[in-house]
């Protein structure tokens, strides 16, 4: 496990890179699917990372509190050849077990993770309805799997986006396992 902090490739105001990815519902998904929301949250994640596992309840809470106004999109870019626990079938099983209600997509070529500049899992990017980046960073302040949450950073920022409020800090790095890149 390589522990990484997210980096800033996309800056505040940058437009979300387009994608067409297969979801665990066996349908292709694009950004156009999320046009009727006040924004969308793209979270690069996987099944096996202890940092993602520690955020399962937080991910479900994001959906429960903000999912009708802000689309939540999980994207798994890990190399499933070397990490079979991150395979498409395993994604379906994990989503079922963890009761994910948000879209969970696979980025088999890893091109989307590269376009977004995703580094770790989880690595969340929050965009407004114009597809502009408004926040890139942590879900909450529990940075290690055993830490106790005292500040729900992403929920606060999502609620500000929904209500038209100003998000003060546009980058607050997430921390997690490195994305498992394919060998070229």
The gross shape turns out to be: globular
Approximate helicity band = 10-25%
Residue-averaged pLDDT: 95
Low-confidence region ranges: none
Observed structural traits:
184 residues; Glutaredoxin; eight-stranded mixed β-sheet; alpha/beta; 5 helices; three-stranded antiparallel β-sheet
Protein architecture, described:
With 184 residues, this protein is α/β, with parallel strands linked by helices. The protein has one domain: 3-Layer(aba) Sandwich (Glutaredoxin), CATH 3.40.30. It has five helices and eleven strands; from the N terminus they run E-E-E-E-H-H-E-H-E-H-E-E-E-H-E-E. It has helices spanning 50-53, 56-66, 88-98, 111-116, 153-163; strands spanning 3-5, 20-23, 28-30, 39-44, 70-76, 103-106, 120-121, 123-128, 133-137, 171-172, 175-178. The chain has an eight-stranded mixed sheet with strand order 3-2-6-5-4-8-9-10, covered by helices on one side. Strands 1-11-7 form a three-stranded antiparallel sheet.
